Porin
Amino acid sequence: MYHDYKISKNTLIVTAAMLGLSPLAHAANWFKLQGVSPAKAPMFSVSGFIEPSIYAQPGNEDNLEKNHIPNTDLIAPGLSQSTTANILRARIELRGNLNPNISYFFGGEFGDNGFTHVCRRYQPGLIDGHFTFSYIPGARIEAGLIRAPSAEGAMQGFMSNNFVLPSTVIGQLMQQPMYNSNDPYKINQQTNAYLINGQQSLGDNAFRYPGIMAFDWFRNGHWEFTYGTMIGMFGTVAAGNQSSSPIYAARLQEAYIFGGKGPFRSDVQAGIWYQHASPELNDTSYSMNRYGVDVQYLQGYMHQWGRQFRFQYMRGTGWISAASAFSSAPGLPATLTNTQLYPGSQNTANGYMLEGGLFLTKHIEANLRYDYYDRLPNDPAQQRIFRTWAIGLQYHFTPLTKIMAGYYFRTLDVPHQPNPVANSISDAVDNEFAMQAMIAF
């Protein structure tokens, strides 16, 4: 399928091998691509990618007192501007094969994102770091800093991201912020939620946890069955807070493969997954559960009329975070300037996303996504519903390098309208425009 691209086949093979994409491998999937180096990969290779990005969301704060701008209209992770440019991700990766049965992968993140912002300070760190042992038939063992089995949208590699802004349901429900479990935290007596300021936030963990995972895939004709199961620590290596609290995660998936190789193959895939963690705060252990299902159809990557469709549903119970409404400002109560963490097992959240894409030419792809997230429906006073329609356009230079633009129609609903401030924040949420280049090297 690669003879149409204006790069040589050997160049693509070498580049993809360095990135762990293995375009010649049969029955590739994200467990394999991100866990095992290609069989012909060298002992040592260096690669990486950068993602320069531009954001603009003017906001609509006419009804807010003192001209405060809510965080929903500010660009993360700094939350200081409504229009800005940054390098969202910048990674250097080392990987290779020590022998036919042992491969390794280490990656450093230097971009400007939630992973590199620890206690409101920029701090680049190790985002991947693991060895994979393939001695046991049917059970490859991966140990180190691992992307945990979960939703398909959280396991994708960078070349499969079709929008600059991530799905809200995945970002809020699966991209769990980490907190220093040794700090004392105040309780909001009205909601029984912990109040956590920015100095206590250790950033997010980019879906990765230190641990050990068993996984493998089995091919029978066009059919492929894949599993992955992991035990790890619910903590963040970037902040040096490797909690002893456990996390368990598993995913099962079945695929029917039409053809193609590596991450650009054509297939229909369905998966089911589950995560359970026991995070600690204020010397108390809590329960956090996440689970869901997903289906995807991909056919004809970088071919005219190539198309894709994805559906993902996920649900969470216990340990639900509600990000602060405003940055710290005089005259605002702590409940508005602090993240509120709802740790009780009775708390719930759920959501889904639908996404479609069509290649108008072999280089130009149009995309559409609908994203829905219902946070804390068990608590009417705190329930918030996030809805986003996103339209996107991409130009693919090569299978690994592209530029994309998207416009996001965002709404935030307060179903039970508890107070004027909540309604004002909801009314202030505005649309956003974003552009990004993904450049592999």
In short: The domain at 9-440 is CATH 2.40.160.10 (Porin). The mean pLDDT is 87.
